[in-house]
Design a protein that fits this description.
The protein has 641 residues and is an alpha/beta fold. It folds into five domains: 2-187, 2-Layer Sandwich (Beta-Lactamase), CATH 3.30.450; 197-303, Beta-Lactamase (2-Layer Sandwich), CATH 3.30.450.20; 331-494, P-loop containing nucleotide triphosphate hydrolases (Rossmann fold); 498-587, Helicase, Ruva Protein, domain 3 (Orthogonal Bundle); 590-634, Arc Repressor Mutant, subunit A (Orthogonal Bundle), CATH 1.10.10. A five-stranded antiparallel beta sheet has the order 2-1-5-4-3, with helices on both faces. Strands 7-6-10-9-8 form a five-stranded antiparallel beta sheet. A five-stranded parallel beta sheet has the order 12-15-18-11-19. Helix 22 (590-609) packs across helix 23. The protein is globular, with a radius of gyration of 28 Å.
Length: 641
């Protein structure tokens, strides 16, 4: 039997090679040149991405530390998500194997993803079975995913270099595909049930100012409105088709949905802690057909005020996870947190890159708390906030009499204060050039000499640096030392801007509403959908910091206990009924055009400077090659090999 399967696979690969030759695929070029932005790939692609995130994480948990990566592609072969070990991710980057890349046969030749999609067959492609030479160092295991109508929908893949541990990789790929199919079938069934449900139910969901779910007679969620999704902190795609008891322990209450209980006559109520440890009240009201048979229930979700103070929600003790303060479900944030978790137990230097307000210091503190140095001090210093004449004494300390006004007995610097712990150098790009050489010497030698002193003092510190600037560009401009750049850029972690984190903005808004209402002693009984719409529509150039301050202003100015968009700052809110128009106006703000023009010009200059070398250009710009290819394509610039 195994021999017949092997012969069948060989025949599939032979046929695939023939197709590659017919399509003129160049075996010497294994890199993907067809890389697209998410917004260009359509609604089904975005739906697949949301639907499969948990499945990818679950399967990756089974292969962690085996040098492999997990990917999901849509039916065309465009990669919708990727999780993996650092070794495999770096190897994949050399092939431009990443989200948005087309891994179909006509794009990159015979490979497990493209060939499995073409043949609708489970497949493992090893080494030289790949059509393109640059893929010969890989083993890829893929399983197609089918929609409930039998049509091809996606592909689940586990890949890695030849020397990685591929034990049972194909079985796990098949398991991942079946998990996605199960989730997809639930969603499709819920869609059909929603289509058959009463128009009154659908209208009620759309018009409601509170969180509403529609549940069928078996307790399965058929429809979800945006407020309910935000309250529970779970995307609609993941909730639709799931059972209500996944979110609320309804033991003994299921019969109310089917009409077999007296509770079905008047609805029922349970109060339980829910997602993100909030206490929520779920009131369920039965929906019946004209002949009186039970159809399901409308479930109203509201926050429960504390019996002592209406501004406080019931919260369990915070967990011990040092990364718990980095809230969000987006793939970009999870990737950054995952990298931070892996590097935290080591003493490796970390460079955090991200726009202002993205949470770089929060992540730095989490890395410190998760390290073996957690019992030691965490010392933060903003290199851009210290006058150039004082920065040396601040970092290295000074001896008595070093300068006029020096403290008697001298003073230790930040390095000595952080001894045995972590020194966080924020805004490292702003450090003066003449100071950078002194910093490099300390990092290399592990000892400091106080200003005015001659005796070196040994220090044992872990360095975490952060910047919102492109350090590689600063190096080329002569504003940052190249040797210091390489000394700091050991493990680089990019924190995504809030505008690229999808539904995380609503999750964070809910979190800040809870924290700030407590701080200001304000009771928030109802949050109107218009508030969520305004928050979701804004681009948040100031990122999480701006969102927190906007929520604080809204809660502080709230006239009663109902939170709406009217108390949000002027630059955030949209007038009722003109959300689309306001969104269009934001699209043509001069600042956004200016930023895009600057970005485009920077890319053109770098691309020309490095004579079209993608690797050098991407490194200089501080972005991945996949991102650079996509940007070049957007600018209509041809990409060289």
């Amino acid at each position: 039997m195994r021999g017949r399967v092997s012969l069948q696979v060989q025949e599939l690969i032979r046929q695939s090679w023939s197709r590659c030759l017919e399509h003129g695929v160049d075996p010497a070029k294994g890199k993907c040149w067809d890389i697209r932005y998410e917004e260009d790939l359509g609604e089904e692609y975005r739906f697949l991405k949301e639907l499969t995130r948990d499945v990818q994480a679950e399967i990756y948990g089974l292969i962690r530390n085996r040098g492999l990566l997990v990917t999901v592609s849509d039916r065309r072969g465009y990669l919708a998500g990727m999780l993996g070990d650092l070794k495999a991710l770096r190897a994949a980057d050399k092939l431009n194997f990443g989200p948005g890349a087309n891994w179909g046969e006509t794009s990159v030749g015979t490979n497990a993803i493209g060939t499995a999609l073409r043949c609708a067959h489970v497949l493992q492609v090893q080494g030289r079975e790949h059509f393109c030479e640059t893929h010969h160092g890989w083993i890829c295991s893929a399983a197609p995913v089918f929609d409930w109508n039998g049509e091809l929908f996606a592909c689940f893949d586990i890949s890695g270099p030849l020397d990685s541990n591929h034990h049972r990789a194909l079985d796990l790929a098949m398991h991942g595909a079946r998990l996605i199919e199960s989730r997809l079938y639930r969603f499709r069934a819920a869609q059909e049930a929603a289509a058959l449900s009463s128009p009154i139910v659908h209208a009620a969901l759309q018009a409601a100012r509170a969180g509403l779910l529609y549940v069928d007679s078996s307790g399965r969620i058929v429809d979800v409105n945006p407020v309910a999704s935000a309250l529970l902190g779970v995307p609609r795609e993941r909730m639709t088709g799931a059972r209500l008891e996944e979110f609320f322990p309804l033991k003994g209450s299921q019969s109310a949905f089917s009409g077999r209980s007296s509770k079905a006559e008047a609805g029922f109520e349970v109060t339980v802690p829910c997602h993100r440890s909030k206490a929520l009240k779920a009131d369920a009201f039965p929906v019946t057909s004209p002949n009186g048979s039970a159809q399901g229930a409308l479930v109203l979700i509201e926050e429960v005020p504390s019996p002592i103070k209406t501004t406080h929600w019931v919260r369990p003790a915070p967990p011990d996870d040092p990364f718990r303060h980095l809230l969000g479900h987006s793939a970009a944030l999870r990737e950054a947190v995952e990298l931070a978790r892996r590097v935290a137990p080591t003493d490796t230097t970390v460079l955090l890159v991200g726009e202002s307000g993205t949470g770089k210091e929060i992540l730095a503190k989490a890395v410190h708390a998760a390290s073996r140095r957690s019992a030691g001090p965490f010392v933060a210093v903003n290199c851009g906030a210290i006058p150039s004449g004082l920065i040396q004494s601040v970092l290295f300390g000074y001896v008595e009499g070093a300068f006029t006004g020096a403290r008697r007995g001298g003073s230790p610097g930040k390095f000595e204060q952080a001894n045995g712990g972590t020194l966080f150098l924020d805004e490292i790009a702003e450090m003066p050039l003449d100071m950078q050489v002194n910093l490099l010497r300390v990092l290399e030698e592990g000892q400091v000499t106080r200003v005015g002193g001659t005796r070196p003092v040994a220090v044992d510190v872990r360095i975490i640096a952060a910047t919102h600037r492109d350090l590689a560009l600063r190096v080329r401009e002569g504003l940052f030392r190249e040797d210091l750049y390489y000394r700091l850029n050991v493990v680089r972690i990019v924190l995504p801007p809030l505008r690229e984190r999808g539904e995380d903005v609503l999750l964070l808004a809910r979190h800040f509403i809870e924290l700030i209402s407590r701080k200001l002693d304000r009771s928030v009984r109802v949050i109107l959908p218009s508030f969520y719409r305004a928050v979701a529509a804004h681009r948040w150039p100031g990122n999480v910091r701006e969102l927190r301050h906007a929520v604080e202003a809204a809660v502080a100015l709230m006239p009663g206990d109902v939170l709406g968009e009217e108390t949000l700052p002027d630059h955030v809110r949209c007038p009722p009924g003109t959300e689309a128009k306001a969104g269009e106006e934001r699209e043509v703000e001069p600042m956004r055009f200016d930023l895009r023009a600057v970005e485009a010009e920077t890319i053109r200059r770098a691309y020309a400077h490095f004579h079209g070398n993608i690797t050098e250009t991407a490194r200089a710009l501080g972005i991945g090659r996949n991102t650079l290819y996509a940007k070049l394509r957007k600018l209509g610039m041809p990409a060289a090999c």
